[in-house]
């Protein structure tokens, strides 16, 4: 597979608006708008930095992956995933499976900004939740 760059770092937050006060007002980053991704039960804010972005994620439900992550983390946010950009997501998924590693998503799903995304299980990556992302 061909990994191009770190597409984004996914940071779980309990409150997106509150979090932006630090990332925008203090760090001087610019949020390029927000989007609700129903499929993932999240509200997302993207803050580009060079070739990569910080992705701030607030849960829209009490049972989504971000809500669960925050619960398990003692009610605090934190780095929830790292996303790598690939040029062919179907090929990347197939190669990971072929080598005997576990994908959470065996088919690409909708990602924020109309990306195609798929998560690879932390058991396979030795401890991080890895997102593969292809942007059209
Ligand atoms: C909008 C979109 C985009 O970019 O466009 C997004 O990013 S959406 C971002 C939010 N969406 C997602 O995260 C979707 C994919 N995530 C999932 O399906 C889930 O969150 C899982 C990663 C499977 C975790 O689910 P759950 O907590 O129910 O499972 P579990 O407790 O059995 O966890 C299985 C093992 O993985 C570990 N584990 C769980 N979450 C982890 C994380 N974020 N980073 C590193 N390790 C993690 C647990 O400690 C456990 O290890 P031990 O067994 O050793 O204790
Ligand atoms: Co992400």
Automatic annotation (TrEMBL):
The UniProt record lists the keyword Signal: no
Which keywords appear in this protein's UniProt record, sorted alphabetically? Isomerase, Metal-binding
Which GO molecular function annotations are given, in alphabetical order?
A: metal ion binding; methylmalonyl-CoA epimerase activity
Entry superkingdom = Bacteria
Pinpoint the VOC domain residues: 5-135
Q: Which InterPro entries match?
A: Glyas_Bleomycin-R_OHBP_Dase, MeMalonyl-CoA_epimerase, MMCE/EMCE_epimerase, VOC_core
Indicate the enzyme's highest-level EC class.
Answer: isomerase
The EC number(s) given in the record are 5.1.99.1
Q: Which GO terms describe its biological process?
A: L-methylmalonyl-CoA metabolic process
The protein in question is named Methylmalonyl-CoA epimerase
Origin organism of this chain?
Answer: Romboutsia maritimum
């Amino acid at each position: 597979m061909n990994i191009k760059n770190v597409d984004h770092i996914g940071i779980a937050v309990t409150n997106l608006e509150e979090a932006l006060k630090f990332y925008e007002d203090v760090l001087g980053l610019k949020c390029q708008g927000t989007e609700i991704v129903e499929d993932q039960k999240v509200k997302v804010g993207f803050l580009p930095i060079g070739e990569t972005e910080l992705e701030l994620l607030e849960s829209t439900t009490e049972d989504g992956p971000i809500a669960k992550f925050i619960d398990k983390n003692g009610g605090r946010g934190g780095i929830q995933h790292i996303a790598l950009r690939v040029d062919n997501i179907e090929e990347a998924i197939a190669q990971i499976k072929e080598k005997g590693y576990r994908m959470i998503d065996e088919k690409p799903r909708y990602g924020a900004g109309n990306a195609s995304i798929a998560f690879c299980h932390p058991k396979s990556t030795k401890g991080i939740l890895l997102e593969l992302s292809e942007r059209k």
